[in-house]
Amino acid sequence: MIEQPLLIELHYLPNIQFFSKLYLYQNVCIEQHENYLKGSYRNRAHIAGSNGLLRLSIPLQKGKNEQQGIQEVRIAYHEPWQQQHWASIQSAYGNAPFYEFYADAFEPLYQQQFEYLFEWNKALLETILSFLEYPASLTYSSAFRQIGQAGPYTDFSNGIFPKKHRQKEDAHFEPQPYPQVFSERNGFLPNLSILDLLFCTGPQASIILEQSVI
Fold first, then answer.
1. What residues make up the domain containing 170?
2. Is residue 1 part of a domain?
3. Whole-prediction pTM
4. Tens digit of pLDDT for each residue in 81-121?
5. Mind giving me the DSSP string for 67-99?
6. What distance in Å separates the CA atoms of residue 91 and residue 88, rounded to the nearest whole number?
7. Cα(74)–Cα(7) distance, integer angstroms
8. Three-state SS annotation for 135-162
9. Distance CA 201, CA 203 (A)
10. How far, in Å, are 72, 98, 144, 152, 208 from residue 31 at the CA level?
11. How many domains does the structure of the chain reveal?
C-alpha cells in the first residue's frame, strides 16, 4: 500500500476505480470543501442494463451549481428520480446472485428525500463501505484546497470522470472481469458503479477490488 494519503472527491454510487483506491492507499481523504463540477460523477453513475450501459443522473436545483460549494448543492425533486433510479437498479440486478442480500440496505435510502447532494452521496458511501473489507483509513477534508495545492496528499481530484478525455492517467488500476447479469448479451462492461460488483459477486467484491490494483 502507498503511505502518502490520497485526496479524492465524493461520487454518486462510485465506480470500481474509486473503491480500488481504498486498497492502494493507507489513507484516503474525501474532499468535502471543494466546489461542484458539472458533468462529473458527483451526481451520476453507470450501471449495466439489459441493453448495455445505463446512465443514472441526479437532477439538481436550478442555480449556479458550477463553482458552488459541494455541501451547498441541493437535489431537485420536481421529478421522481429516486423511484426511477431504484426501478432501474431493480431491473438491472433483480436477478443478480446477491441482489436480495444487499437491496434491503439501499432501498430505504431511495425512499428518503435528502436536501443536499453531498449528504446523499455520503449516506450511500457509508452503506457501501459497510459491506467491504477495506484496509484504508477513510477521512473527510477539514479545509478547502486549491487545485495543485493538496499539501501532503496525492491529489486525484477529478481524476475519475465520465468522459475519457478528462480522466487522469491511472497506472495503478486495471479492471478485473467478473460475471455480470447481461454479459452474454452485452459482453463485460468494466468499471461500473460498485453496485454492479456487489450485486454480482457479493463477498468476493473486496477480493476483486484488491486484484484491480496494480
1. 6-211
2. no
3. 0.94
4. 999 999 999 999 999 999 999 999 999 999 999 999 999 99
5. TSBGGGPBBP-SS-HHHHHHHHHHHHHTTSTTH
6. 5
7. 23
8. CCEEEECCCCCCCCCCCCCEECCCCCCC
9. 6
10. 14, 31, 8, 14, 26
11. 1
